[in-house]
Specification:
Helices cover 28% and strands 39% of the residues. By secondary structure, it is α+β, with helices and mostly antiparallel strands. The chain has a single domain (3-115), classed as Trna Endonuclease, Chain: A, domain 1, CATH 3.40.1350. A hairpin with a 2-residue loop joins β1 (22-30) and β2. The chain starts with a helix and ends with a strand.
């Protein structure tokens, strides 16, 4: 990942941790793709996609998580749960953290349960 991507991911992580979520994994790699953040929100496993857009001319960060991307994230999440069977019985959700605006101080929009898989 590039430095800017790391920076936005770190901002998203700090935002989620400030809200009480606990990090389980960061940049979990599978042959189907990568999970940016895997968090624990109480008894829920949250798979979090982080997106940054400086401008919304072509849609914001949340809109950029297409149906195709959602399928890849769902498959990667299944791989994560296979690798961590102690979490497999917990409820799961897919969140998107959309950052936008000025790179040095982006606005953060956390969309819980952004899509169903």
């Amino acid at each position: 990942m590039n430095d800017l991507g790391d920076r936005y991911e770190a901002l998203a992580l700090a935002h989620l941790q400030a809200a009480g979520l606990r990090l389980l994994a960061r940049n979990f790699q599978t042959r189907f793709g990568e999970l940016d953040l895997v968090m624990r929100d109480g008894d829920v496993v949250a798979f979090v996609e982080v997106r940054y857009r400086a401008r919304a001319d072509y849609g914001g960060g949340a809109e950029s998580v297409t149906a195709s991307k959602q399928r890849k994230l769902a498959t990667a999440a299944a791989q994560f749960l296979q690798a961590h069977p102690h979490l497999a019985s917990l409820p799961c959700r897919f969140d998107v953290v959309a950052l936008s605006g000025a790179p040095e101080r982006p606005a953060i929009n956390w969309l819980r349960n952004a899509f169903d898989a």
